[in-house]
Structures are given as structure tokens and as C-alpha cells.
Amino acid sequence: YTASNTLSLHDALPICFTKETNQLVHNFNASISFDQKFFKQDIDGSIAHVTMLAKQHIITDDEKDVIVNELKNIKQQIIDGKLEIDQSCEDIHSFVEATLIERTGDVGKKLHTGRSRNDQVALDMKLYTRDEVIETDHLLTHLLETILKIMEANTDTYMPGFTHLQKAQPLTLAHHFGAYFEMFKRDRSRLADIYDRMNYCPLGSGALAGTTYPLDRAYTAELLHFYGPTLNSMDSVSDRDYLIEFLSALSTIMMHLSRFSEEIIVWNTNEYQFIELDDAYSTGSSIMPQKKNPDIAELVRGKTGRVYGALVSLLTTMKGLPLAYNKDMQEDKELTFDAIDTVKGCIQLFDGMIDTMRINKDKMAKSAMNGFTNATDAADYLVKHGVPFRDAHGIIGQLVLYCIDKGIALDDMSLEEFQAISPVFKEDIYDAISLKTCVEMRNTIGAPGIDAMKQVIALNEAYLKEHPAADFVK
Ligand code: ARG
Question: Residue 195 and residue 189: Cα distance in Å, rounded?
Fold first, then answer.
């Protein structure tokens, strides 16, 4: 290796050598195949770094201009497909630096002054992740808008509510979807928390112990829109907490999507027919012509395991690492990228799937009527007429047995049949146990009654106005 002004990509930096390192070692060690994903962030970080170096008179303004211009060039050329990322380089950092040096000679060699790949990669990954936290919030916000739209249109779409997958009490589709609205709302607030905690800049921490140059870390942090610099250089180069937190939040999002998918799959079955997925979001069978499969929902449910895997994998990678940087940490990238791309895809597809599905209101209402979902209300009727609850519970139990025997619903019984079991029943029992009454009487906040539901919808509309996508970016 000799320094010269006419360096080729391969001899520009020893880290780009492929001849002296055993080829298998090089391949095993190299990260370029995946860390090229953050070439933009790598270049943005470098631009901020040299801008700070010039401000601190560590390099001249002219040198900074040459480097910044060429870095911008390199970035644009990669974006435009005019510059191919050389896969024989060890990583994206060495590729960008080597290309810069190849084009600007000795000036380019000043880029890495006061910096290590350890704080560089910590920065790149943080910048990349920060962008993805924002992206994820955009997608979740859109999903919330879709859910709210469905809620607004279905405040009187009656359906059975289930416990143990057994029909329990009647509610509405608005109420059922409202449960998921709350879940994804919490997911968004987790993203906001993560953004807030992670938004400190590790650049300037050097390999582990800072540098001897008079860097202005607060300035670099400001240029890159961080709240400020991180406060311990060893922690800065070896902190992957924010990735673990993000993977945890992504896992929770997947858990919610997976539960929702499971319900969509069940509701879409021939037995339920509560909903019908749009053809554009269903797939056929290669052998059975009658089939329309809910593959999207099943894939979302299936991919949940993969995202959990990323979380557990990174937790395990990190658990035994001494301070500060260790190469193990390079393992954070592929699985995090995969988890992020997976979750983003799932949110988008799920959103489109529920937005286009047809809702069979009649089937839902009929199902709610046929499962004694009004038995609690029948008992409450007796209580309101002076029967102690425990006795009322027993009387309705008898009624249900009677109905099961005759294959009818409570609503189908004649008044004489009611009164044969308890004389307390009067003509108004029918109204008291109608589906509409059962739902409408439940009007405490959070319950499915139309008034309560409308209140909650209004609150959630206000929430979406107050918290537009990525509002945590200050
Ligand atoms: N590819 C490395 C990673 O992802 C970059 C940091 C390399 N640092 C080092 N000391 N080898 O972690």
C-alpha cells in the first residue's frame, strides 16, 4: 500500500484490500451487501462531520467545500444508478471514503479525521432507524384513519362479542374495531417514546474514548437534527438499546396485526361470513376452484414470528458483550432491516385489506341473536324488577336450557313460556332483550352503546388531528 494521488478504489484504503485478506475471511467479515442500505445516512453524517471540522479549523473551508461537493455528487450518482457500489469493499463506509479519495486525492483523505468507523456506524444506524421510526408512524397513522372510517360507518352494525371464542354479549363492529384503534394508538406512542430517547448523536465518540481534536459535538448533533450529543463515548459506540426498543415496538405492532388477522380469517370463513375479503386481497387455490384464501391475513400472522425472532436475536447478541464496540454488533443490521421492511409491508397490506373488505351486517346481527348474547340482559331485567341477581342468573339459566331444547332464541319465546318460569316477566321483556337495547343500554364510556361510541370516535378524531403522523419530530 502506497499513498499516491492516483489511487484506484482498491488501493485507496487498506480496508478495501482483498488480496492480502483471505477471501473467505473477507467475505465473512464484510457488511457491504447489507450496510449499503444506509449509504445516504453515511454520506449525510460525513457531510455534517466535515462541516464541523471546518468550523473548528481542523480542515480549511476550501477543503470542506471540495469534500462536501464530492460527497453530494457520490450520493446523487448512487441514487441515479450512475455509480455502482463496489461489492468488494468491506463496508459502505470504506466504499464512500475510497470513492471520495479516488476523486479528490489528498483532500478526501481528511474526511475521516477525528472519527472512527465505530462512531460512524453508530450514527448511520441511528439515522437510518430514526427515519424508519418516522415512516412506521406514517403507516400506522394511515391505518388508524382507515379503522376510524370503518368505525364511523358501523356504530349500529351489531355483532356478537366473544370470550373464549364463545358468543358472550352483543356489541358493534365499531366497538370491535375500536379495540384495535386503541392498540395501534399505543403503538404510535411507543414510537414517539423511542424517538425521544434515541435522538442523541453518537458522532465524535471516536473508537471508544473520544478524540484529541477539538470537535464540536453539539454542532454536529444540531446539523443532523439530534437533541444533542450523547454523553459517554463508550456507551455511544456500543449502545443498541434503541434498536431493541424499536424491535420490541415492531413486535408489539405485529402481535396486534396478527390478532386482528386471526379474526379477519375467522370472519371470512364460510361458517361465519361476517366479512368478505376483496378479490384483490384474496388468492385462489391451484386445485380447488371454489377457494378464495385470506393469504394476506395469514402471511401477516405468519411473519409475526420473524419479527419476534429479530428482537430475541439482538437481545441475545448483546447480552454478553463487554464495553465497548465488538464486531458482534454488526449482526444488528440484517435482522433489523428485515424486521422493519416486514412490518412496514404488513401494515400497508393490512390497511388495504380491511379498507376493501365487504361487511355482511345481516350475518353479524343474526349471529348475535342466535347465541343467547342477551342472556345477561334478561337477567338484568329480572334484577330491575326486584329479583336478587343470583336468583335471576338461575332463572335465565333455566330459560336458556329450555330454548336449547326447543332450538329457539330467547326472543322467540312466548310471554306464557316466559311467565311459566317466572311471573315477573311482562310484555316489555322483548324490548329489554332486543339486540338494539342490549347494545344501546351499554353507554358508559368505552362501551359499545351508540352514544358512548360516538363520544369515543370524536375523541379519537381529535387525537388524530392533534397527533398527525410523526408529530414527535420537533
Ligand atoms: N460493519 C461494521 C458494523 O456494522 C462497522 C464498524 C466497524 N468497526 C470496526 N471496528 N471494525 O458494526
Answer: 10
Beta bridge partners of 158: 172
| Cα distance between residue 235 and residue 325, in whole Å | 9
C-alpha 202/C-alpha 260 separation (Å) is 39
Q: Which atom of ligand 1 is nearest the CA belonging to 325? A: 10
Task: Identify any residues that bridge with 276 across adjacent strands, giving them in sequence order.
Answer: 358
- What does residue 365 show for φ and ψ, rounded to 5 degrees? -65, -45
The per-residue pLDDT for 286 is 80
Amino acid identity for residue 113 in this structure: T
At 375-428, the pLDDT tens digits run 999 999 999 999 999 999 999 999 999 999 999 999 999 999 999 999 999 999
Q: Which of 25, 32, 116, 118 to mutate to test the pocket of ligand 1 (most atoms within 8 A of CB)?
A: 118
pLDDT tens by residue, 298-354: 999 999 999 999 999 999 999 999 999 999 999 999 999 999 999 999 999 999 999
How far is 465 from 353, CA to CA, in rounded Å?
Answer: 24
Pocket test for ligand 1, best of 42, 92, 327, 336 (most atoms within 8 A of CB): 327
Q: Which amino acid, one-letter code, is at 349?
A: L
Spell out the SS3 assignment of 94-116.
Answer: HHHHHHHHHHHHHHHHHCCCCCC
Kindly give the residue spans of alpha helices, DSSP state H, lying in 319-449: 332-356, 361-369, 375-384, 389-406, 415-421, 429-432, 435-440
What phi and psi values does residue 434 have, to the nearest 5 degrees?
Answer: -70, 155
Neighbour count for residue 333 (Cβ, 10 Å): 19
Residue 115 · residue 210 · CB < 8 Å: no
90 lines ligand 1 (CB under 6 A): no
Alpha carbon distance 186, 334 (integer Å): 27
pLDDT digits (tens, 9 = 90+) for 418-464: 999 999 999 999 999 999 999 999 999 999 999 999 999 999 999 99
118 CB under 6 A from ligand 1?
yes
Q: Closest Cα partner for 194 from 137, 257, 124, 258?
A: 137
Residues linked to residue 163 through DSSP beta bridges, in sequence order: 166
| Confidence check: pLDDT of 136 > 50 | yes
Kindly give the pairing relationship between strand 358-359 and strand 200-201. Answer: unpaired
